[in-house]
Amino acid sequence: MNAIEIKGLTFSYGNTPVLNGADCCVPEGRFAALIGANGAGKSTLIKMLLGELPLTGENGTIGLMGRELKLFDSWSQVGYVPQNGMASYKDFPASVEEIVQANLYSRIGLFRFGGKKEKELVHQVLSQVGMEPFQKRLIGKLSGGQQQRVLLARALVNQPKLLILDEPTSGVDKENTEEFYRLIKKFNREDGVTVFMVTHDRNCLSELTDDVWQLQDGVMKRVIEERKGENHGDI
Ligand code: ADP
Ligand code: ADP
């Protein structure tokens, strides 16, 4: 099954076309990257995947986890790390624990809101990303790398099958970026989470990912995987 299947996707903002018949598929279990120049339409594509932009019959089709987007209602299966994810917590005094817990679907009848089982899931995912010792800390007091790990925990707390990340490490230093990629890779390899990640960081691609898709002129093409040691130019 394909976790993501995009066919003939088009999108314009007013008269400005951004996507122009894009096709792409990400089989379940794969780690796929999406690259492309600034303004190529990567964030637009991600917003369409998440149902945040309108999709009519004329825009082509999107399938998520084998279901048409219009009929898709298993959003707990999709984890999302947005670009500039910290922006929503600016001037908002939320603790690490609260942020992760707020994203947990409450399964009526299974968990009582704020109950023990919920807390366990929150602590479990925080320890998986190495942030359990900081659970009571305000997120604004953490380093950039630590904040990213909290946003990753927030995305993973429902144990999603698909993880979508939009330039998750912009503004994070090299060491923390590598650490962050290792974490994502672990969730991909050990838990079978399908990953679709927008990135500018070309150096990480050949080592981390199974597939690289490039968005250019409104269409997507698969980029032949580069071998290590070859020249990595800027994107
Ligand atoms: P990327 O994520 O690849 O940098 P975006 O999807 O953000 O690209 O943007 C694609 C194009 O659409 C850009 O030219 C951008 O200026 C334009 N754009 C993005 N959002 C809007 C919007 N809300 N209204 C109008 N144009 C937009
Ligand atoms: P599923 O993920 O089982 O296909 P949906 O996401 O459509 O189902 O959700 C159905 C109901 O079950 C929703 O009310 C949602 O709150 C709950 N739910 C589904 N998955 C989870 C999960 N991993 N954690 C908590 N609640 C969930």
Automatic annotation (TrEMBL):
Residues 4-235 form the ABC transporter domain. One of its GO terms (molecular function) is ATP binding. CDD domains: ABC_Metallic_Cations (cd03235). Keywords: ATP-binding, Nucleotide-binding, Transport. It comes from the Bacteria. Pfam families: ABC_tran. Belongs to the ABC transporter superfamily. This is ABC transporter. It comes from Lacrimispora algidixylanolytica.
